[in-house]
Amino acid sequence: MTSLGAAIIGCGAIAPLHVNAIASVEGARLVAAADSNARQAAAFGAVYGCETVPDYHELLERTDIDVVHLCTPHYLHAQMAIDFLNAGKHVLTEKPLAADVPSARRIIETADCSKGQLGIVFQNRYNEPSQRIRQVIDSGQLGRLVCMKGVVTWHRSEQYYSESGWRGKWATEGGGVLINQTIHTLDLLQWFGGEISAVSGSVSTDVLDGVIEVEDSAHACITFANKARGLFYGTNAYPVNSPVELELVFEQGTLLQRRDCLYLWQDGREQLLCEPGTVTNGGKSYWGSGHQWLIHDFYTHLREGRRFWLDGREGIKALEIIAGIYRSSDRRSTLVTASGNHLN
């Protein structure tokens, strides 16, 4: 079996999940890590026994590195992904694919011409409830999907933003709760619903005004080409991190995800279809357990010479929804004159 050498770019909070997953993949090994914070990089290398460098450019031509994991802030994804893909490396990037849609398109164009593959980490697609929901949709066993909703009520403190130089800013984060926390739920809604025909919505900063430039709350109505309707609400203004809630209404029953358990409501009865196992990835509980399954699947596709299914064209879809919500919210802004007349 050919060994695959891996590099981690960005030694922050999410990086250990990638390291642990790499360690569990047969024939994969962590070779190096890069981070512009020399102290953080050194500590990371000491814990995980890998070489560290301050500049990712030092890794571009390394023949012992086949796969690169991008665990960096949003605004760095595009150029890093493009550089590594141009060097022929396989790239697996944390969400979002990029900080904006045009940058994401540039990554996809580069991947189309690269010997390397591009994958994006939307690990919630690998959670058992998500997999079961998709099976129900594909089988048609409950009939047509009529409507669905996704609700994310989480908490992010002032300290969460103040301790980071890039969060909460348009130029570096690319948005707020939409692009950072709830993008996973938006991705699931479009994965379940299919092609989208229209998006409307609005954003606001309800609690963190003066702390961040971006939104901490958002809602949207998504119309799908199959006539199903999706409603979405997400916020970082809740005092706690509450479990994500999903509901999918079909002609012959309803699927509900509550506290990571999936239920079927049908004929006046509720049936438990699956419940979560113990999360042992060392990460935060709301990250779920899908990272390991996704990373394993990515490496399996590389070894077998198959195109990874969760690629740039899949990854850009949630970004396009977010861009649509922002555009819709901007159009709804209303100016009020001194006389009380509304200017739309």
Automatic annotation (TrEMBL):
Domain named GFO/IDH/MocA-like oxidoreductase: residues: 131-255
Annotated protein name in UniProt: Predicted dehydrogenase
Domain Gfo/Idh/MocA-like oxidoreductase N-terminal: 6-117
GO molecular function terms attached to this record: nucleotide binding
Pfam family, one: GFO_IDH_MocA
Domain of life of the native organism: Bacteria
